[in-house]
Amino acid sequence: MTKFEIRGLRADVLIGEDERREILKGVDLTINSGETHAIMGPNGSGKSTLAYAIAGHPRYEITEGEVLLDGENVLDMEVDERARAGVFLAMQYPVEVPGVSMSNFLRSSVTSVRGEAPKLRQFSKELQGAMKNLSIDSSFAARGVNEGFSGGEKKRHEILQLELLKPKVAILDETDSGLDVDALKVVSEGINRAHTASDLGVMLITHYTRILNYVKPDFVHVFAEGRIAESGGPELAQVLESEGYERFVKAGA
Amino acid sequence: MVKLTTTNTEPKAHSHGLGQIPVSKLDTHGSHDVNDFPVPNGREEEWRFTPMRRLKKLHDWKGEADGTDETVVDAPEGVTVEQVGRDDERLGTAGLPVDRVIAQAYSAFEQATVVTVPRSLVADKAITIDRKGLGGTAFEQLVIDVQPMAEATVIITNTGTGVRAGNLDVHVGEGAKLNLVSLQEWDEDAVEVSQHNARVAKDASFKSVIITLGGDLVRLSPRVSYTGRGGNAELYGLYFAGDKQHHEHRSLIDHNLSHTRSRVDYKGALNGSGAHTVWIGDVIIGEGTEGTDSYEHNRNLQLSDDTRVDSVPNLEIFTGEVQGAGHASASGRLDDIHLFYLRSRGIPEEEARRLIIRGYFLDIVNRIDDEDLRERVMEKVEQKLAAHE
After folding, report:
1. What pLDDT score was predicted for residue B7?
2. Across the interface, do B349 and A105 touch by the CB < 8 Å criterion?
3. The complex's ipTM?
4. Pairing verdict, β B69-74 and B12-13
5. How far is A184 from chain B (nearest CA, A)?
6. pTM here?
7. Which residues of A are less than 8 Å from B344 in CB distance?
8. Hey, which bits of chain B come out as E strands?
9. Cβ–Cβ contact B350 with A under 8 A
10. Helices (H), chain A
């Protein structure tokens, strides 16, 4: 049983050398293992900032609050330590790292997170199986990390990493954006597999209810102006679908 | 002395009667005689990036050449390797020395090495020249003559110490192919100033991969000109300057004939206080030529503070009929977003840096056909990367 707690989190985006802007204005959220929380909200409300700040992205700085994984403050950890502790971020815009082959990257990553190098043959079998489940052609293993991948291919590879790294909690930042219906289905199945396989806690950040037809949330939160404005069950998503976010956004904001 | 002419680099009579002017500003002079060059003071265009005090007096040489090397040459059957004297007429025929140090080397050498790959021979393994400097100052001349329709790979490895200056003359005959690798893995006190002159014949192909990792000061000037249409030259380079190291590469491609192709791609890294790299990429597309296809690219990664990068692409075009000509240069720090991405997958910072640097250099290293050599280069790169972690 894992408890992932975000308490009073405030964070700034670093714009220039002396310029910063507060984006997160006190976020509180608890995710227990096995729970899926959908975070929904309008553009610019700070959803992605929340994801990046927790992962330790260099363009964001946390100014207040804590993020606890089973009582341990994640924010005291280095970026790579956070991942090894069991926090995973599937990025909205996965990064291209030229010249580093996907297979090398995945093996290094799995070795670091599991604490020992997997046997080469076993790993290659595991990788092939996981790629096949996500309908990723095996030729991608030899390509540079995300290098020249389409948006959909990048998203599939984020979920591939989720399945290989088996974290305790996964933050999925608009994993559904830019996916066609078939890809959305494949990716959702991957999320559900990871969820079942290891009782994963999921924070699913999205604009749209479309993905919630495939990945069923236990809780839905509306994110607006840097904090959670309202929380509810799956039915809240339906309300948002018909009413939009208008009532959560200040007039003229 | 052998008389050399190339369309763009020889002075021509000015049509308005103002006397001799060079056609290209990039390449104004050349001579085999050291006395044709004044002693440089370091402010000249061709010397302004070079730390003159660390040249060990090569630019104003007065003493005896007292250096010795331990050189092992391994050539496959059919390839000849000769030691010849100054009077051998094959020497100095691929390009004129363009600075005083190179002319000094030409004026002072006593013995030269000539490697000949005879007509139509396809060498089944690489010709290797392992040179270990045993100290002192030495002036050297090496000629590689790949005759028409022949194919060869030459791998030169430089290790040890000393002060070395010289010419490498390369002839790639009609329809011939040469892959040249030159690895500078000198000890940290060594100095090398060399010029590589390649003449690429009709439909010939020349690939040069220069890897500079060692030495206190290394200054290499690879130069290419063509003797026939369809000539193709690809110059690749990898350099990695550590503490106080000076690595300078100055390439010149003279597209003196129509329908010739060139690619120049050099990538460098700097890690350590006082590391300085210089890349000068000159390309001339000659008067009256057509169908030239040329591109040059330089990138530099500054991995620590207190490093200096100079990157200067120069392109001079004297014709309207160019198929392609361009250049790009970029220098900067390791991308912290790349680092973040790998680290967000649990990979520790040190290893993430290692992966990124390996990836950065991969396309250049892959230009080396020999797998052992590729691994040797990557290992050395990793050592230099680890030196400041």
Report:
1. 45
2. no
3. 0.96
4. unpaired
5. 23
6. 0.90
7. 55-56, 79-80, 82-83, 89, 91
8. 12-13, 20-21, 69-74, 80-84, 112-117, 127-146, 151-172, 177-184, 191-200, 205-212, 217-226, 232-241, 246-255, 261-270, 276-285, 290-302, 308-317, 321-333
9. no
10. 47-55, 79-85, 102-114, 120-133, 151-165, 181-198, 235-243
